[in-house]
Design goal:
Layout: E1 4-13, E2 16-23, E3 26-33, H1 34-40, H2 46-69, E4 81-83, H3 91-94
Parallel strand pairs: 3-4
Antiparallel strand pairs: 1-2, 2-3
Length: 96
């Protein structure tokens, strides 16, 4: 079963946008990096980072869930899952 959204709220930081997901009762902290928001989704500044995250949140959460269940976590770190530009690269672009 994939991770599910923990809370609707999120926090914009100098490192990206942080959000919570749940694996059953376990809370999993996540971050979408600024590089992801700016290079993959076209955000240009802190104000548009928030709008960009909201607009692409479902896809970002899907990538966080896939990374979590693949075991690509930072155990004991905060956040535990960091979603980067390469995590959301198209399979075709990975072959180039």
């Amino acid at each position: 079963m994939p991770l599910v959204r923990g809370k609707q709220e999120f926090v914009s930081t100098v490192n990206g946008v942080e959000f919570l997901m749940h694996d059953g009762l376990k809370e999993v902290s996540c971050r979408a990096t600024l590089d992801l928001l700016r290079n993959r989704f076209g955000s240009q500044d802190p104000t548009s980072d928030v709008r960009t995250f909201v607009r692409n949140r479902d896809a970002i959460e899907h990538a966080a869930s896939a990374k979590y269940f693949a075991g690509h976590t930072e155990a004991g770190a905060d956040p535990e899952i960091v979603v980067t530009e390469s995590d959301m690269a198209s399979p075709l672009s990975l072959k180039l």
